[in-house]
Amino acid sequence: MPEKKAQKPTTANLPEGAHSDFAESMSYGDYLSLDSLLASQNPVSGEHDEQLFIIIHQATELWMKLILHELHAAVTCIRADDLAPAFKMLARVARIQSQLIQSWSVLSTMTPADYLQFRDQLGLSSGFQSYQYREIEFLLGNKKPALLAPHRHKPEIHDRLEAVLKAPSLYDEVLLLLARKGFAIDAAVTDRDWSQPYAASPSVEDAWLQIYQQPETHWELYDLAEKLVDQEDSFQQWRFRHLKTVSRIIGHKRGTGGTSGVNYLSKALDYSFFPELWSVRTAL
Q1: Cα–Cα distance for residue pair 210/217, rounded to 1 Å
Q2: Would 30 be classed as within a structural domain?
Q3: What is the number of structural domains in the chain?
Q4: Is residue 252 helix, strand or coil?
Q5: How far apart are CA 176 and CA 127, in angstroms?
Q6: Which of 107, 145, 178, 209 could serve as 183's disulfide partner, Cβ 3.0–4.6 Å?
């Protein structure tokens, strides 16, 4: 029986000019490290919906990595009194948050029965332990030193979080900016232990009141204030959708990481990153 000759791959139907030989060139998959990225979903059960659960959380972590990239850069710009690029970065974060809010709608297609098929196999792992989420909260100003504890087993992560905890938050840098611009901000606001939670100050509300009453005079600061309000508004919507999705899937069960679940998430909705930007609306 005659041997069949190996057929040469045809490129006849490729779009004109499209490259097809990547033996010595970087391809799309190479650039994005798709082999390692797509091999990172490792279910611990044989349940169909666990793949959804893993991918949603991994995609969230990727978006949070970009949020941190933008927020740290925005802080650097604000510290340097360079507000224009910071506006673009903060606007991008708000758009990313919109993606995160929508992701809960995908996860909520998983029913309580679906989740219970593999929940017990998650052990003590929980979103509460997300170190990127914790860094975002510290960077936005929700400073709680006790929340470093779940990361003590990984010194490089613990040290990074501790550095962000001890540094001025995004809002702290904005208030320092107001002081540099000549607003009478109390020393208790501008010279304090940055690792401790921020407490609202009448001097800060008065500064924002001046800015909101004369936006034409203080346009950049007025625009910055509204960008911050967008951040908190989006973040709170994300928190709310998280709470409702958890409530829909597990009710009031305790979280896998030991928290009170829905009750814990509900309390988080009461926290404000930028309190005077909300209270000033009543004072106007």
Answers
A1: 10
A2: no
A3: 1
A4: coil
A5: 33
A6: 178
Residue 156 lies in a domain: yes
CATH number at residue 265: 1.20.58.480
Which range of residues forms the domain containing residue 122? 48-283
Q: What is the residue type of 223?
A: D
Residue 198: HSE in the Cβ half-sphere, 13 Å Cα cutoff: 32
CA distances to 46, 98, 150, 170, 233 from 230, in Å: 41, 11, 30, 14, 5
Model confidence over 174-209: pLDDT tens digits? Answer: 999 999 999 999 999 999 999 999 999 999 999 999
Domain contains 122: yes
Cα–Cα distances in Å, from 17 out to 11, 13, 20, 21, 71?
10, 11, 9, 12, 40
120 three-class SS: helix
pLDDT digits (tens, 9 = 90+) for 133-147: 999 999 999 999 999
117, 103, 106: which is closest to 44 by C-alpha?
Answer: 117
Q: Which two tokens stand for residue 71?
A: 């927020």
Cα–Cα distance measured from residue 84 to residue 90, given in angstroms and rounded to the nearest whole number: 10
How far is residue 20's CA from residue 6's CA, in Å, rounded to a whole number?
Answer: 18
Cα separation, 21 vs 154, whole angstroms? 42
Name the pTM for this structure. 0.91
- Is 10 a member of any domain? no
Q: Among candidates 145, 143, 225, 234, which has minimal Cα distance to 177?
A: 225
